[in-house]
Design goal:
Helix 8 runs antiparallel to helix 9. The chain has one domain. By secondary structure, it is mostly helical.
Length: 261
């Protein structure tokens, strides 16, 4: 149900806010509320954020049904609670320190890697992808142009965070146990790069699928199935990598070491 704007006779002649200005003000107010909660840990619902993280692996559709509920009750698609972002940041820091340990980095090198991963890989790339998807969905995937409906930038960022979390757990946590032990995926033998590249296929596949679910949940978007098309390229790249002996995990380890030198 769309919010209505009441008529204010005093606004005539005084440059009353039009609908776009009002929406911008509302977005600013919501953003302020979200950032303010970062300073008040007791106001964050970490239990619910953990529930979302669990279901992003087992049933991501349930997570987006909750986004529908938020739209109905709070008139916004994006999260108003930064608890998920805080827990994701903790996961990122812990897993990056794990990478530093596995790759035999010293304290300074691990700190450099952590700063690169947090500010470039997570925040920088996340802002870039979210902005790109925000522009593309509003410009090309809208059922019909309207000032009443649009994809919130905050929602696009939430979709990225949702999709990024399983990728983070698989490639930055689960993969750690296989780099130098069990299968030793950081090697040139077949089983190593087969297991490693399969983890990459699973992680990026999760990212594509959860991104698709996020935008297909918006009733005013069309042709969201196009967001699944990268799957074909992903599978092709996976088959090609196995055939040619490419090892994505070995490349990642080399790239991380190169960064901190």
């Amino acid at each position: 149900m769309l919010p209505t704007t009441s008529y204010n006779p005093l606004s005539q002649g005084n440059g009353a806010l039009n609908s776009r200005d009002a929406a911008r003000h509302t977005a600013g107010a919501k953003r302020y509320k979200y950032l303010r909660r970062l300073l008040h840990i007791k106001q964050m619902d970490f239990e619910f954020a953990v529930w979302q993280m669990l279901y992003l692996f087992t049933s991501p559709q349930r997570v987006y049904r909750n986004f529908h509920y938020r739209k109905q009750t709070k008139d916004q698609w994006a999260r108003d609670d930064p608890a998920f972002l805080v827990l994701l940041s903790v996961w990122l820091c812990v897993s990056t320190m794990g990478f530093g340990f596995v790759l035999d980095m010293d304290f300074v090198e691990t700190l450099k890697l952590l700063l690169w991963v947090v500010f470039i890989d997570c925040i920088g790339v996340g802002l870039l992808i979210s902005t790109l998807m925000w522009v593309v969905t509003n410009k090309y995937l809208m059922k019909q142009p309207s000032r009443d409906y649009d994809v919130e930038w905050g929602y696009a960022f939430d979709v990225h965070l949702n999709a990024f979390y399983p990728l983070l757990v698989i490639l930055h946590f689960l993969q750690l146990f296989f780099i130098n032990h069990i299968v030793v995926i950081n090697s040139d033998w077949f089983l190593g790069y087969f297991v490693g590249n399969t983890l990459w296929l699973t992680a990026i596949g999760y990212y594509i699928y959860i991104t698709f679910l996020g935008y297909s949940a918006l009733p005013f978007l069309k042709n969201t199935v196009l967001l699944l098309y990268p799957f074909a390229l992903l599978v092709l790249l996976y088959v090609l990598s196995i055939s040619l002996g490419w090892n994505f995990t070995k490349g990642l380890c080399w790239f991380y070491k190169y960064r901190v030198q």
